[in-house]
């Protein structure tokens, strides 16, 4: 199963702020959703053959500095039927050879479009790592083996929020399984379920976990469904037709809390 990239370089990057200064969140396309990347022949390309990062003017909103995803690197180990699983934020340059190899697999490149020289995936990662924290690129480690790549992002702060009724703190997920021997075994749905459970546990302000796989990516859509995500609506996004998959928090009703 392959997901889609949450952070195409075709979209404007994020500019992080340090120290005690407020973070300036720019409501223009930000890393966090796969659908910004159009057909390769139609993209404006920069010196590395990648779409240029455009940084035009836009309205700005000031928010206090904070960890926008509640410390993804500290979410801990998740027990699964396939073994202990955890997310570990990407480290550059150490993780670059592994990720570049995965992205150059044709089955992955079909949806992620990050194949080619390692500089391409490095640029893609740095847009996130140097940003304001609304997206965190991670390696998924299962049984001690790095075997998947994840992008966990604030969907409510992403342009995707313009296309569905987003709620504050919505968390978006994108996934690719790296080694070919990890695919077609049900691992995608197993890990998606474990991670969605953990998101809803460690992020109490988050009411739903969302994804927007390409409608053509049937294995990805099916894996989200098996992981407890509900297929809601189809979205015509700027560069793809997508399916909005949603895993909602189940909150007890007032009647359920009453003691007989």
Sequence-ordered SSE layout with sheet pairings:
Layout: E1 23-26, E2 60-63, E3 78-80, E4 83-89, H1 96-103, H2 106-112, H3 118-129, E5 135-142, E6 145-154, E7 171-177, H4 187-202, E8 208-211, H5 218-226, E9 230-237, E10 240-248
Parallel strand pairs: 7-8
Antiparallel strand pairs: 1-2, 3-4, 4-5, 5-6, 6-7, 8-10, 9-10
Helix pairs in contact: 1-3, 4-5
Task: Characterise the protein shown here.
With 260 residues, the protein is α+β, with helices and mostly antiparallel strands. The chain has one domain: Aminopeptidase (3-Layer(aba) Sandwich). 20% of the residues lie in helices and 25% in strands. It has five helices and ten strands; from the N terminus they run ββββαααβββαβαββ. The strands form two sheets. The chain has an eight-stranded mixed beta sheet with strand order 3-4-5-6-7-8-10-9. Helix 1 crosses helix 3. The protein starts with 22 loop residues before the first strand and ends in a 12-residue tail after the last strand. Residues 6-65 have low confidence and may be disordered.
